[in-house]
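Last lecture ended with a question: if I hand you only a sequence, what can you say about the shape of the protein? Today we answer it with a concrete record. The protein is Adenylate kinase. Below, first the input exactly as provided, then the predicted structure, then a couple of comments.
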Amino acid sequence: MQELSSIAEGAAHLRAADRILVMGCSGGGKSTLAQKIVAFLDLPYVSMDREFFWLPGWVKRDKTEERALIAAKVAEDRWLIDGTGPSTFDLRLPRTELVLWVRMPRWICIWGALSRALRWLGRSRPDMAPGCPERIDWEFLRYIWDWEQKFAPKVLAGLAQHGPDVPVLQLKSRGEMRQLLDLLGCPA
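The predicted structure:
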């Protein structure tokens, strides 16, 4: 992992990048950040949940089909992909020019997921597949609570294996996210 040393360095890389991966734990604000960046940089927005992972009724898409869709998308010249999914890093990281890792404390992610659930409960949010109304349960909250311990090591291993030369900017607070948007000139 080629970790960037400052948010200013990340903003400079972001301005020049045509293929960006925004990842992190659910509820951390990655989709909100991604949507602000694509609006400003005029990049195509790709939600992994909406376009690859889920079919209506919370049915998981077949892995072979999922990988084929991802491979086709990453072959395109310009995109911002919103989603972590380390099992497809082998497809995405070799084409990625910058990774933004939204790495918030778990209590912020829990709060974000609960707030989002209240806002969208019973409806599909724009970054989710149609027919997948927002829901929240203890299993999902446990997933968020354990994310850093269980899934961050998989992310680090995937970055090392499939994208050792890809610059990575870790954003660990809402303030850092605002600072990045300010440096880009994006409205917060």
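Comments.
1. Residues 106-120 form the longest helix (15 residues).
2. The chain has a mean pLDDT of 95.
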